[in-house]
Amino acid sequence: MARAAVPRRLGGRLRWKPARLTDRRVESQVARTLVFEVPDWPGHLAGQHVDVRLTAEDGYSTQRSYSLASAADGEHVELTVQRVDDGEVSPYLTEDLAVGDVVELRGPVGGWFVWRPEQKEPILLVGGGSGLVPLMAMIRMRRAVGSRTPFRLVYSVRSPEHQLFVSELRLDDPGLDKTYLYSRSTPPQWPRPPGRFTASDLSSAGWPPDFEPTCYVCGSTGFVETAAGLLVALGHHPARIRTERFGPSQ
SS3 for 88? Predict the structure, then answer.
């Protein structure tokens, strides 16, 4: 049973911690969920991220930032990593890192793009591709603490083969409405043709602006800028739109 996070103060000094891989799960053709055991993990908020550092035998070191996919669960941390074929780190994490191997983590990081269980306003989650990962942490945290805050998820992805967390999102989760949009190919007999999401999609699947929801938008820079702009055009106040974007280099 996941426990609510009691993170250290956001301004505290972060140190690198050894993290041992204890499990890995296939999430899609190109994504894997990595489960790490991190001794003395301070807990985290849904939406935060960590830095991951890899060090080679010759001393060469490199690091990347990844969103936390899990609700707080003691010393266990989950990252869902999507492989970028020409990337330096993600191919190693998704294909080569083996159970028992150790990397270094630093975090949790971030205090703006987070959902806290004490929030009572409606929540709109808008994710593009692997931008679903921190939003999934929010969904899992909501479930873990038994929150009744109403959530709506709008998830845009290239094709069914690229979807993340398929089995889990099929589960009945009262108070969580889910809408899937496919940009390139759809499941058979899908009612909406493939294409980029529109203001109409966000209007029909999201919350009316007068409900004053907090909107969390995560994805590539282009996706985030488009979604945030459409939400503002629909009447959502910019101060209620929180964004997180990722770059192409992993």
Answer: coil
DSSP element (H, E) containing 134: helix 132-145
Beta bridge partners of 221: none
Segment 30-53 shows an average pLDDT of 97
Mean pLDDT of 40-54: 97
Residue-wise pLDDT tens digits, 105-132: 999 999 999 999 999 999 999 999 999 9
| Residue 246: predicted pLDDT | 83
Separation of alpha carbons 113 and 103, rounded Å: 25
Whether the CA torsion 156, 157, 163, 164 is positive or negative: it is negative
Counting the structural domains of the chain, the total is 2
Edge-to-edge strand list for the sheet holding 123-128: 176-182, 151-157, 123-128, 214-220, 241-246
- Give me the domain span that covers residue 58: 17-109
The CB density around residue 118, as the number of other CB atoms within 10 Å, is 8
